[in-house]
Amino acid sequence: MSKAEDQAGFRYESVADDREQVRRIVSATGYFSDAEIEIAVELVEDRLAKGEQSDYHFVFLEQGEGLVGYGCFGEIPCTVGSYDVYWIAVDPNCQGQGIGKRLMREIERRIAERGGRHVYAETSGRQQYTPTRLFYERCGYEVASVLPDFYAPGDARVTYRKLL
Amino acid sequence: MSKAEDQAGFRYESVADDREQVRRIVSATGYFSDAEIEIAVELVEDRLAKGEQSDYHFVFLEQGEGLVGYGCFGEIPCTVGSYDVYWIAVDPNCQGQGIGKRLMREIERRIAERGGRHVYAETSGRQQYTPTRLFYERCGYEVASVLPDFYAPGDARVTYRKLL
User: Fold this and answer.
1) Which residue in A38, A137, A152, A132 sits closest to A88, CA to CA?
2) How far is CA B106 from CA A56, A120, A126, B9, in A?
3) CB A67 within 8 A of CB A26
4) A151 to chain B: which residues are within 8 Å by CB?
5) Residue A89, Cβ neighbours under 10 Å: how many?
6) What is the mean pLDDT of residues A90-117?
7) Cross-chain Cβ contact B144/A144 below 8 Å
8) Distance CA B158, CA A130 (A)
9) Is the complex ipTM more than 0.85?
10) Which domains does chain A have, with CATH numbers?
11) Cβ–Cβ of A78/B36 closer than 8 Å?
């Protein structure tokens, strides 16, 4: 695969079908609660409704016919240059191919392009989320903060940060 | 002042006039940017529109004719029992009378009533916000996290927490 082809397949604007595709992928990962899945879909709908005026930016990655993964990011309100990666999810049937890393690199490239300085990603400290935390660490993120029992008793919030 | 009178004056539902009263108080403190002032007013409008269905809960404190201070809090999305104090502001003409502490105690009482376990409050690490940080510390809050350069270069985010 050439470098040009490797960059192909990213899409930045949402289309109506993304609602169901995002719901499918986010649900299939098994990592998110029903409430979180609804939020993931709502962010897609916000982008659909507002286009470039939306505070939520997307990177969709398609292969063949369907969506194989996506990321959603935005500048954190009342900050100058601090961005949050709200969502990053890869179809479980397509994991282990480096798609998550490609999505993350593309998200970071677009954040830098917008003048972003910091990228944050929050996840759970529970054992179930060890693969997620290792993913952020492999992508060069460091733990910036841990709040024990934040999400629920026994469920810490771990905040990762990368300086661009 | 009797204990009963000390509890008097709190109001929990917003009225139309709160939009301008909150704008007046939040602006007058001199602590908030225009964007932040707009957000403060938007949260009041959310409560006005949705009533008890709003995710934003309020404690308004009136003395005589007008509003002298208010607080706004809510359960942090996707958590069980972690609450954020989004806003707490006292009319500068009425500061130094313990109104902030009374508001905070009432906020915490209402959070505990709803089953809340943790209360969080975020503020800036800049020197200008030293009185704010000292206020949280006097109210029994401890620093749970510091993210340097979060709001802007040289402007850290300090997250305070109190366990109920």
Assistant:
1) A132
2) 35, 33, 33, 11
3) no
4) 78-80, 82
5) 24
6) 95
7) no
8) 27
9) yes
10) 3-163 (3.40.630.30)
11) yes
